[in-house]
UniProtKB/TrEMBL annotation:
<dbReference type="InterPro" id="IPR017861">
    <property type="entry name" value="KAE1/TsaD"/>
</dbReference>
<dbReference type="Pfam" id="PF00814">
    <property type="entry name" value="TsaD"/>
</dbReference>
<feature type="binding site">
    <location>
        <position position="189"/>
    </location>
    <ligand>
        <name>substrate</name>
    </ligand>
</feature>
<feature type="binding site">
    <location>
        <position position="119"/>
    </location>
    <ligand>
        <name>Fe cation</name>
    </ligand>
</feature>
<keyword id="KW-0808">Transferase</keyword>
<keyword id="KW-0479">Metal-binding</keyword>
<dbReference type="InterPro" id="IPR000905">
    <property type="entry name" value="Gcp-like_dom"/>
</dbReference>
<dbReference type="InterPro" id="IPR017860">
    <property type="entry name" value="Peptidase_M22_CS"/>
</dbReference>
<keyword id="KW-0408">Iron</keyword>
<comment type="similarity">
    <text>Belongs to the KAE1 / TsaD family.</text>
</comment>
<protein>
    <recommendedName>
        <fullName>tRNA N6-adenosine threonylcarbamoyltransferase</fullName>
        <ecNumber>2.3.1.234</ecNumber>
    </recommendedName>
</protein>
<keyword id="KW-0963">Cytoplasm</keyword>
<keyword id="KW-0012">Acyltransferase</keyword>
<feature type="binding site">
    <location>
        <position position="193"/>
    </location>
    <ligand>
        <name>substrate</name>
    </ligand>
</feature>
<feature type="binding site">
    <location>
        <position position="176"/>
    </location>
    <ligand>
        <name>substrate</name>
    </ligand>
</feature>
<dbReference type="GO" id="GO:0061711">
    <property type="term" value="F:tRNA N(6)-L-threonylcarbamoyladenine synthase activity"/>
</dbReference>
<feature type="binding site">
    <location>
        <begin position="142"/>
        <end position="146"/>
    </location>
    <ligand>
        <name>substrate</name>
    </ligand>
</feature>
Amino acid sequence: MSERSERDEPIVLGIETSCDETGVGIVRGHTLLANTIASSMDEHARFGGVVPEVASRAHLEAMTPTVESALAAAGLRFSDIDAVAVTAGPGLAGALLVGVAAAKAYALGLGVPLYGVNHLAAHVAVDQLEHGPLPKPSIALLVSGGHSSLLLVPDVARDVISLGSTVDDAAGEAFDKVARVLGLPFPGGPHIDRAAREGAGTAVAFPRGKYDDGTLDFSFSGLKTAVARWVEAREAAGEPVPVADVAASFQEAVVDVLTRKALQACARYDVKDLLIGGGVAANSRLRALAQERCDAAGVRLRVPRPGLCTDNGAMVATLGADLVSAGVTPSTLEIPADSSLPITVVNV
């Protein structure tokens, strides 16, 4: 460790390449120094979804300039870095490989520890940049394009327990598919959120999967299909599709289930702190309904600002800093990129 890190908190460089965004973040403990993102979203938009090979090539091209940009934004040199953290999984295999290989090279070249971390745990850890240390324990609801999970988090650096997850489509995936049905651009989440503001969430009674099944799991495939069938029926009858009302009603069905299950988890495990993370956590209706229901239940709600909800390097760096501070043994240079890394494995 450098002389500086012996006096202060560790300065950690974090690399995130699990999907379509090359994220590089730098933190000093829980203080954000830089959060630089190079997105390949525009390259995927014409396909209506992320193309793994396109994402991998984009990461390869963006890696070096994004790291250099983050260092410049933080006003640091490579010699200031105390550790390197990288998303080792879950995610797209090829995309993960680019980030893991780069992190190994930087850690080896700088002579600093390497930490391969779990993408989902990093989404939990990042909230500390905005709201301070996580209460122990917390319940975390993670909702994104690839994941819808409920977690019990006694200690984000050491112990994350899965309580429930999606049995089919993730919430973000359903947003993308419904947006396509409604003729809205990819990615669907922000466009449905925007359209829904002009519609009524009670206009169409769409189904709520696994609403009263007693589990903490989710299911959005049936809802997605119900929206598609409803729209098809209107079009077949020659009637206009009320996009705003459909978007609002679909969105209401999703956030109703998400918040209901999250509060059930808090009650079941007697936890008074709920964290919502992942890209869908940027949704305005999810934030509003979660706050309303948490207030009624006496639960404290934590949601990072939208820029920290989507995939980014700062979340990886933050979890890396937690691992350093907790004295967790660093990863070896043999760590794999694991596309199906389970949430219960915080670091590899």
